[in-house]
Amino acid sequence: MKATVSSKGHIVLPAEFRRMDGVEPGQEFDVERLERGDYRLVRRAAPPNEGAIEWLLACPQKDFFVAIASESTDSL
Description:
This protein is an alpha+beta fold. It contains 2 helices and 2 strands. The model has no long low-confidence stretch (mean pLDDT 84).
């Protein structure tokens, strides 16, 4: 596929690739120069808990997660 460099140096990843790979706005990539004229674009791995707070805040109602009573393991 073809991509064009803008006057500001931006390159847009084609929409088909973004859809296929689930690329979201704000995701970061590393650009590696392999040799003159050859580059490799690699998506950075997301931190292990990325999105966890947003997921918890999206719970359907307040106090959705509640502590449950449980027996102590001290008596086992």
